[in-house]
Each structure stands twice: as C-alpha cells, then as structure tokens.
Structure prediction request, 374 residues.
Amino acid sequence: MNNGSMRAVGVIPGRREVALLQHAMPRVSGPTELKVRTLDVGICGTDREICSFAYGTPPDGSDYLVLGHEALGEVVETGPGVTKFKTGDLVVPTVRRPCPHDHCPSCRDARQDFCFTGDFTERGIKMTHGFMTEYFVEDQAHLNIVPRALRDVAVLVEPLTVAEKALAQVWQVQQRLPWNNGSSGLRGAGKTAVVLGAGPVGILGAMALLVNGFKTYVYSRSAEPNPKAALVNSIGAKYISSATTSLADFAREVGTIDLVYEALGVAKISFEVMKVLGLNGVFVFTGIPPHKPAIPVEADSLMRQVVLMNQAIIGTVNADRPAFETAIRDLGTFQERWPDSLSKIITGRHPMENYRELLLGKAAGIKNVITVAQ
Ligand code: BGC
Prediction:
C-alpha cells in the first residue's frame, strides 16, 4: 500500500548531492513500533561532514540517506504492543541500532554503543534513514519520553548525551582511586575539569560538569568578547581563550586538572593540553576529526607522563539509553538553574528549506535547529 510521501533532507552520495527529497511516509508495522511527528532536528558537525561525502552511508538498496540524528518528536500513533508511550508524548530517539550478530554481547545487551562487530547502524548516519523529515517510525526500545516543560530545548538531549556517556565512564574509571568528594555528595566536588571547545557539545558538557560539582574551565580559540565566552561565563564556568592565553599560563591559572573533556575535534591542541593533565587524571576524547596529514606529538614524553601519573585516556562515541535518561534529567536541572543561558545555545531555528545554507554554508552560531513542525 502506498502511504504517500513526505519531505526529507538527504544526501545522494552517488551524485554528490544534498537535496530536499520526497521520501515514503513510514508505517507502523510491528506491535512495539510508534509513529512520531518530527518537531525539531538539530544540525551538527557529523551532518556537515556527511554532506562533504567524507562519512555517511545510505541504507542497502537506497541511493540516498535521510539526514538527522538529533531529534525531538511527538507520538501520533502506537502499535498494539506499545506499553510505555501514548499519543501526544514528546520523545527523543537514540541514534544507534544493534548489529545482528549473536556473538556481539554488547548489542545483545542493548549496549550497541559498545558494538564489537562494527555492523551496527545509525539513524541519519549509517545505513538507516534519519529524522530530518516529517514523520518517522521507531520501536519503543529506542525512544525516550521528555517532559513537556523541556519542549523548547529537548533537541539538545542528544548532544548532551555525549557528556553523559563520558561522565558515566569517568565515574567508573575513577573508582580505581579514592576520590574524596567532600560532604556535598556531588561526584565532581573539589575537582577541576577543563572542556576543550565551546560548541554545543562543549557548552552542554560544561553545564553537566558544573551540576556534578566540578570547578569548570572552557579553553577555546576565539578571543573575548564573543557570545560563546559570554554564555560559558554566565553559567559559572570560566572561559579562557587559547588565542590570548598560552597553554603555560592557562595551566598556571587552572592548577591541577582532574578531567579534560575534549569537544573540539582538533588533535593539535588536544595533545598539547594532555601535557598538563594532572596526577591520576582522566582525558576523554569525543571529537571526530577528519583525516589529516600527520603532526608532531611528543610521544615518548607523553607516554612517560601517562604511566608515571596514572592517567587514563578514553575515547567515547554514541550513547546508551541510560545516558539519554540522565541527559533528560540534567536538561531539566539546567533549565531551572540557567534558563536564559540554556535557551541561548539554540542560536537559530529554520524551516527545512534552509537546509543548503545550514549544511553546506559557513558554520554560524552555536546550535542550529530545523523546525519541521510546531
Ligand atoms: C553522533 C553519535 C554517532 C557518531 C558517529 C555523532 O555525531 O552523535 O550518535 O555514534 O556521530 O557516527
């Protein structure tokens, strides 16, 4: 049965085109599936990279891939076996779907963010269509309910999950040592964190670090004054520009660094900052730089330091359901604590027709969102 078609933004890698497409209207076909009306879709560096054809794969049998993996929608139809959702609920989908292999313990345990085979798919990125379209169908296992009060900012849940998954690992890794957090009960109390980069992942990460009690610095390139620095300072983190403050001066000002949260996607500055990570510190990489020519790194000195200082270097990608749940809870805390600053992360709301400028034009603002429906 033909259900008609709807508008979607996608890439056609074979023709190296980014286009507004007609895409088949999806249908609920399994008992635990839901149909969701898309409200907001965020645009990130991964989308822009897919549009440069360096990344991203259409589903088997399709010559295009519908983009979009940061989404907020409203449930419009539920399959007969749906237990956790009802029509009208606001939902945010996760991104990665499990590989089919029995021998992948992660995917069989709903931990496809740690897939062992690489045969996972990702909505809007790898072999499954994304959410930059009017409706999507999804199994209830991959959706998270969002309170109505977060309607205007819930499109930020997915980029916040990057920090939430990173922090979940930091807590696990630091169980190796007696981290004394004082009496506040906050796990980062008395500790210092440095965020590299002041894009959406960096700013949301700084907010997550602050609510966990860390003294938080954001080290980023642009000289002050600039809107990102103002936003960072407004939440009680401290913005320091690498254009005006050398790494040595930065390290002197910050003191012992217990955690570096990299949200920049640039190796050169990241490996420089690794040199000033403190004793027993953790360095978490989240950025995905494009392949580039090799750069010099003081590898022996760094290796010596990582060993002699008990340091942990972690790479993290994608997020599991608990990270989405923590992100939804924390976003509520951010909204209570910093309502103005939180809303300022979304610097543009656009109709779908603006896709070309948003995906291929010069990156502008902090987080740009496509408003598919109100
Ligand atoms: C997404 C992740 C995804 C990663 C790699 C990121 O932009 O947020 O969910 O796993 O790209 O494809």
